[in-house]
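TEACHING EXERCISE
Course module: macromolecular assemblies
Task: Read the component lines below, then compare them to the predicted structure of the full complex.
Student: A.B.
Group: 4
Components provided:
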Amino acid sequence: MRDELYQQTILEHNRNPRNFRKLEGATHVAEGYNPLCGDHLWVYVKANADGVIEDAAFEGSGCAISKASASMMTASLKGISIAEAQVLFEEFHKLVIGELKPDVHPNHLGKLTVFSGIWQYPARVKCASLGWHTMHGALEKTKTISTE
Amino acid sequence: MSAFDVHRYRAEFPNLKINVHGKPLVYLDNAATTLKPRCVIDAINAYYVTGVSNVHRGVHFLSEQATAAFEYSRQVVRQFVHARRVGEIIFTKGATESLNLIAQSYGRHFLKKGDEIIISYMEHHSNIVPWQMLCQQIGCVLKVIPINDQGEMIFEEYLKLLSDKTKLVSLVWVSNSLGTVNPVKKVVEAAHKQGAVVVIDAAQAVTHTSIDVQELDCDFLVFSGHKVLGPTGVGVLYGKEKWLELMPPYQGGGDMIKSVTFSGTTYNDLPYKFEAGTPPIAEVIGLRSALEFLQTISWENMKAHKEELLDYGTKALLSIDGVRIIGTAKDKTSIISFVVEGIHPHDLGTLVDQEGVAIRTGHHCTQPVMEFFKVPATARASLALYNNKEELDILVRAINRAKEIFHA
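Instructor-supplied answer key:
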């Protein structure tokens, strides 16, 4: 039997997504789109001069998994550095494809481990990662722009 | 009591006996692909166990046997669609390849810059993209017949789009995402008055109604084997002989030639001119079994059974709070697209799957339709001859359970 996908935390974040708004003055923005399922969101990150994320938000539409994942992501980004956010991205990516087992491998995921069973639902992994890939794209893209 | 013995037919589909997540499978994704009856599986198996050989090549026993079986399948397909000549039946790898063949071979040969092609708003991507590619290649123009809120093509708008510039009309007979049955006969008549040829995408229609290409008078008709109880990897292209004769080959290779020299090649006769390379032999043989199986069933009784299911399923779904049905055409086949307020179709798909119910969720390769109805995706229950009312009850219970979980 597979682990239950729709845990209370996920359902709760789907009903009341955190930081679900456009973020004025964002330093990093990207649009994420999954044409297969129509999930479509924007991720905003606002970092200060020291590279510390002061605020993060998202908006758009998608399934419960993509919404809850993006919601929990924005909450976990606040107060950490861009470099730490990239580490978190890597860890989350490994978590959802089943390569990182939270009780075995040291990590910084905290509450995000609620997605640890999703690798058992291969068709839904992309839902959980959409917000994260978008965030990763936002951080990478702006880095490129800033070096010009 | 209906004249249609569902129970008897269910026994012919071994896949119906499996459990999914510990629950009996309820397979409601027939518009994506149908399950296969035992006779189809046996026919494919027999070819691989005792009959393996290539076709049209050897003089040995197995090759002659395989060639005869392969060509007999073509006869069965000809009969199934009521084509005049057996040479008008081309085997492809599916409806998609059939459409691409028409676009690239007929389209590039007969159409020119400024010519117009008409399709409808409810086409599957496979009946949009090949024409867009052709338009890019030769500079012809794609026109789209609009649909109304019920998901029906607006016939008057079609007539307005038709002009002496129209050279080709390509239309889906039955919409895979809405269930709408299009008035293809009237569409053909109007197009022919303007001298345009008509392509009919019958991928969903093949299990809905009997097909008579001569009565319909369409110039081309395509379908896939796997949506008509047959195997994947094989499809059919019917084309009027007069067009196929004039069309250049689509792909080059073995079997499609009479002779090859470095100074030039002579192409083979129909239908081989369009069948380069080793064809899907086992699949063609399997397709024959599928069509023969269907021909043992009365279309009338099967249609009545599916209409009863459509009616029952529609009412049952509408009895759930927050369900909206997308596609409410007057003439509709047993495909029910719907959305449930507060639950994204993908979450619904996963949750009903936990109850053993297979439905399709997504845009069904018809993104323009999704955009028209302002939904990112829908859930779709598509019903086949072997489905029954109990399965629809299970679907309804599964949706209600999903609603409880989501507090929707």
